[in-house]
Amino acid sequence: MKIKDNINKNIFRGYDIRGIYPTELDEDSVYTIGLGFGSYIKSIGKTTCVVGHDNRLSSPSLYEALIEGIKSTGIDIISLGLCTTPMYYYACIKLQIYSGVMVTASHNPKDDNGLKFAFDESGNCKGQEIQDFLDYILKGEFSTGIGNVTSYDITNDYLELFRKNLKFGDRRVKVVIDPGNGTTSIIAEKLHELFPIDFVVINGESDGTFPNHHPDPCVEDNLDQLKRKVLEVGADLGLGYDGDGDRMGLISNSGKFIPTDKYMIIFIRDMFNRVEKKEFLYDVKCSKSLKDEIEKLGGKGICYRTGNSYTKAAVRDMNLPFGGELSGHVYFRDKWPGFDSGLYAGLRMLELLSNNDKTVDELLEGINNYYSTPEIKVSSSDDVKFGVVDKVLEYIKSKNYSYLDIDGARVEFDDSWALIRASNTGPNLTLRFEATTKERLEELQQEFMEVVNEYNK
Predict the structure, then answer these.
(1) What is the model's pTM?
(2) Of 39, 106, 327, 341, which one is the catalytic site residue?
């Protein structure tokens, strides 16, 4: 391994480090990042960190490069090996070692890889912290030493956490689970066997090429197989998981895709009377249906910026019982330690169903429904996308529209809203639109797509 002087700055993104392997991110890059990480945590008084990796084909070699870099600074390493991101989070909690790195690109395409990392108890690095870390690496002032590497298997502790946390009722629920050949494949069956449920597994072999569908369960097209299987076997629901296991997608008993902002309503309705603090967080991409329901229950909704690192930290810092974002990250803090686990979200839904006689579709009755688009991804280079958002904000101000600018531009009308923001995980703009009528939805989408297209060049 050698230090990479010309490390690609564009891989240092809003929530993590992420790029295409091996053109943007390779072993020398990760070795260099490891040197920087070890040196930095050493400078703030840390002596040990936790590391793990997902099942992408490039992850083992990048993982070894990372370990070599960190070890060379004199930091000791607790090596988890192959694990889901939530297993890594729980290992940090269990061992009370909050400095760590997870080698993963989450739900990105198979050729991508990356690093989620935390320096201390404040959680995953984000925003300016990541840019400051890049500057730290570029200085090249690395510590030296010889760290020790100790292997640790978190599996049994993780299974026990679930077993103690969930209390199933008398109804035996039938579910189809789809790990999408991602990292949840290594533990999903063991976990579901702990509980009185009937389950069928599809795409359950660990395969980092993701041969059956893209590993993002919050995009409806990726769950076509799951929909068909739910209907074929007469299941009560279907659960899909992403590449590193921190997100969940839901299919109802009727084969219908239930977006995260809708299934969050089910969870909030269920826990509302049991939690003391009746405030719940959601991100700017979520439907107004969610805000409406929280207010109908007598609670308070908190609209926040998008991004797993941001939303998880906010739910913790505000001491909220529950929160989440449209991309599928949800955080339970009523009886769970607050980190996002797709498998826990799925089993929590199964627990809920086992304790009543309603279907998923019936549990969503009575909500306010709007016409909305899914997330729309518009290709835009990293050099251009933030400027496009600035131009959209200028347009909104020139029209005297009401807006939020906590994350991009969310313009709000009495009958609709539009969101235009720069993605922090790839060279894209992310757009979403919602309105009370189809006609208004089309009108709104046309207006803002024209503005985006004018400046996205």
Answers:
(1) 0.95
(2) 106
